[in-house]
Amino acid sequence: MENITITNFQQLLVTLVSIIGSLIILANYIKTWLGGDIKQLDRQQTMDFLIMEFARAERHPLGEAEKVHVKKRYDHYIAPKEKGGLDGNSYVREEYERLVKEGKL
């Protein structure tokens, strides 16, 4: 059976630290790379949800819980990016405001 020397242990430790460091760098790169795609997907899904709910509100009244949910998603959609929002477009804003004025939302 081979004895583990201090030199062997040091080499093993350096190798492990190098591998862990490389994995951390790779994970950060992937997170940055995918982050933009995830935010774009969130923006598109939120816009699609709001447009579908606007169409439903046109056909029949929404319940209070549904209105609250739409309002929360709308607030997230129109909030500026600096505040964690999606900085949504004016079409959704205009449509939301119109439906609120009509009492449908």
General description of the model:
The chain is rod-shaped, with a radius of gyration of 25 Å. Helix 1 packs across helix 2 (64-78) and helix 1 crosses helix 3. The chain has three helices and no strands. The mean pLDDT is 85. With 105 residues, the chain is mainly α. 77% of the residues lie in helices and 0% in strands.
Q: What is the H/E string?
A: HHH
Q: Which percent band covers the strand fraction?
A: under 5%
Number of helices in the DSSP assignment: 3
* Protein structure class: mainly alpha
- In total, the number of strands is 0
- Poorly predicted sequence stretches spanning 5 or more consecutive residues: none
Q: What is the CA–CA distance across the termini?
A: 77 Å
Helix content: over 70%
For the structure shown, list the relevant keywords.
105 residues, mainly alpha
At a glance:
By secondary structure, the protein is mainly α. It contains three helices and no strands. It is rod-shaped.
SSE diagram, text form:
Elements: H1 6-59, H2 64-78, H3 90-101
